């Protein structure tokens, strides 16, 4: 029987037998503090479930294997959230891994903060883009935005760069915050990690930033959801996620200026991704979806539209100019080379 733990690490898996062991092994080593929930999301092509059960049998006090019918990444994450017993929760995709030294430091800090009676809603750590096919890796940190190694609030938050965001890779949420925010990720939909990070933000009152490279984000598989061709093919799912995020909160009701600014920044990024992919695809249908995207936010969410238009990205991507659209694609390609994403 698994007792309450300090941290739950949820590992969603779908036909992941070829690499999931690396993710699982990276989270082991602190069985008294950490529980692993390995969610087999209806795998059909390999022995993902058998591997998950092997680890459950070997580590009965800290590992649980859950099998469910295929519902997509969001459904697998939600299965982990609903079954978690840890005070905090971290999602680890099955092709990524956690840094052992980083885990030691994170758990040591968590233990110390609880002993002091300090409540933390969100812990932020760095993540590392790993692109071994090109021999490239890049650490993404937040020292320019957040105080290091002290508890702070949104009032202490600095300005995020145009390319800088909190992603699922960088956040460790208090589980109660996720429950209070009523996070419920849609089934059969990719890119829901953005909802997971964005929706709880107004419920976060206390934050702590550790300048450590905790999460290693593997980039480069042809079937990866962030592969550009796959993202264009799944643009309707990206559009759905953006709409869910936009509808989640009325930004003009957010009292804290820094939080409101960051949430606007995040929505602007989502609109930019959708717009850029639609422009890059270039068909008449994509142009129709592009126009519909901006028409919907103008009519359904006029306050959010007004705020996004004040952001550089929001202003830049809503354009009818063919020349300006070419510049957008050029900037996108430059950003790909700088940040090594797919």
Q: What does this 3D model show about the protein?
A:
This protein is of the alpha/beta class and 342 residues long. 45% of the residues lie in helices and 19% in strands. It contains 13 helices and 10 strands. Strands 1, 2, 3, 4, 5, 6, 7, 8, 9 and 10 form a 10-stranded mixed β-sheet that branches. Strand 6 and strand 7 form a beta hairpin. Helix 8 packs antiparallel against helix 9 (257-281), helix 9 (257-281) runs antiparallel to helix 10 and helix 10 (284-300) packs across helix 11. The longest helix is centred in the C-terminal third of the chain and has 25 residues, at 257-281. The radius of gyration is 20 Å and the shape is globular. The relative contact order is 0.11.
- Overall outline: globular
Strand tally? 10
- Tell me the distance between the termini: 41 Å
Q: Write the element-wise H/E pattern from the N-terminal end onward.
A: EHEHEHEEHEEEEHHEHHHHHHH
Structural class: alpha/beta
What's the short story on this structure?
The protein is built from 13 helices and ten strands. By secondary structure, it is of the alpha/beta class. α10 packs across α11.
Write the layout of secondary structure elements.
Elements: E1 5-13, H1 20-27, E2 34-41, H2 48-58, E3 63-68, H3 73-83, E4 86-91, E5 97-98, H4 100-115, E6 122-131, E7 136-140, E8 151-152, E9 171-174, H5 175-180, H6 193-198, E10 207-218, H7 228-233, H8 235-248, H9 257-281, H10 284-300, H11 302-310, H12 312-317, H13 322-339
Parallel strand pairs: 1-2, 1-4, 2-3, 6-10
Antiparallel strand pairs: 4-9, 5-10, 6-7, 6-9, 8-10
């Amino acid at each position: 029987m698994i007792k309450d733990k300090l941290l739950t690490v949820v590992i969603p898996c779908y036909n992941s037998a070829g690499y999931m062991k690396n993710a699982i092994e990276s989270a082991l080593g602190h069985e008294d503090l950490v529980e692993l929930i390995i969610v087999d999301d209806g795998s059909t092509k390999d022995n993902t479930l058998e591997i998950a059960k092997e680890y459950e049998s070997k580590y009965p006090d800290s590992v649980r294997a859950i099998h469910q019918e295929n519902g997509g990444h969001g459904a697998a994450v939600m299965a982990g959230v609903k079954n978690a017993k840890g005070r905090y929760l971290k999602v680890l995709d099955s092709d990524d891994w956690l840094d052992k030294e980083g885990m030691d430091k994170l758990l040591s800090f968590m233990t110390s903060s609880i002993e002091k009676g300090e409540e933390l809603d969100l812990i932020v750590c760095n993540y590392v883009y790993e692109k071994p096919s090109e021999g490239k890796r890049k650490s993404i940190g937040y020292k320019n935005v957040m105080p290091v190694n002290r508890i702070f609030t949104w009032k202490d938050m600095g300005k995020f760069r145009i390319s800088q965001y909190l992603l699922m890779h960088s956040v460790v949420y208090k589980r109660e915050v996720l429950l209070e925010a009523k996070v419920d990720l849609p089934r059969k939909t990719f890119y829901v990690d953005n909802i997971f990070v964005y929706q709880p933000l107004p419920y976060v009152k206390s934050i702590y930033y550790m300048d450590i490279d905790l999460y290693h984000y593997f980039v480069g598989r042809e079937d990866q959801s962030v592969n550009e061709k796959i993202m264009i093919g799944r643009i309707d799912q990206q559009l759905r996620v953006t709409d869910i995020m936009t509808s989640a909160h009325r930004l003009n009701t957010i009292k804290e200026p820094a939080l409101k600014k960051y949430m606007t920044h995040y929505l602007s990024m989502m609109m930019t991704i959708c717009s850029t992919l639609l422009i890059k695809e270039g068909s008449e249908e994509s142009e129709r979806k592009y126009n519909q995207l901006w028409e919907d936010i103008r009519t359904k969410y006029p306050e959010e539209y007004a705020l996004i238009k004040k952001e550089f990205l929001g202003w830049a991507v809503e354009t009818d100019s063919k020349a300006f659209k070419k510049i957008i694609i050029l900037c996108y390609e430059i950003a790909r080379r700088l940040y090594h994403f797919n």
